[in-house]
Amino acid sequence: MRIGFIGFGEVAYTLSKKLLQNNVDVYTSTKGRSKKTKQLALDSGVKIINSYEELAKLSDILISSSSPKNALAIAKNYGILSNGVFIDLNNISPETTKKIASFFSGNNTNSSFIDSAIIGKVSSNNSTILVSGKHSDKIAILNNYGLKIKIISQDIGDASTIKMLRSIYTKGITAIIHETFQAAKELNLSDELFETIAMSEGENFYFQTKSRLNSLATSKSRKFEEMDEVLNFLKNIYAEEELEFNSLMSTATKNKFKSLKSSDF
Known about the structure:
Blueprint: E1 2-6, H1 10-21, E2 25-28, H2 35-44, E3 47-48, H3 52-58, E4 61-64, H4 71-77, E5 85-88, H5 94-102, E6 112-119, E7 128-132, E8 149-153, H6 158-186, H7 190-201, H8 205-240, H9 248-259
Parallel strand pairs: 1-2, 1-4, 2-3, 4-5, 5-6, 7-8
Antiparallel strand pairs: 6-7
Helix pairs in contact: 6-8, 6-9, 8-9
């Protein structure tokens, strides 16, 4: 089995390590990528391919983990070149997912598209990849190679819908946590606040909150970009139901991520 990654950040690096440990051949291309990305790919032990076209054509499973803004272009230019299955692991909206699916509906490709979404921190042993679509069984084989795959339905869009709904909650909580503890830090009351909130939220609150804040420090730009997908998702829901668009909390979360600077951590 040959698995290719387009985009090689934390997601691709972590999944690649799991797959390599289970004797899967893993490939990527670092053409046009940053020095940091190139070094990460080298450190992971994956095989480096010269071009994305070549990478796509040799992959039995081609995985896009670049960014939401590049999702459509990657699917259209490279996803359809795969000889097996193409999945996108970015936090994209169901609408974007369905646009990607339309690229695979003609006779110009031998590849199949599967809707997918990572649930949980990718480095966690409990992280799961939700998949939906008619060809989801083709990706379930990865359960035998170090990953956790859960098929939820035969309908494209269901996996990304669950991911979007979850993101509204988790990213909103992350934004509130940062704002709360930034104020506590200025008042030298962080430890006391942790202890007080843990009384109601449980003993794991401290570690979960620290994890959220540490992750936000390195992924604030990506989270801001992902909130655009969330808001597009919500706008479509309101439009379909002929309701007035009202997503104050998600809009505030997006603006919070946009305003963050390195000095805020």
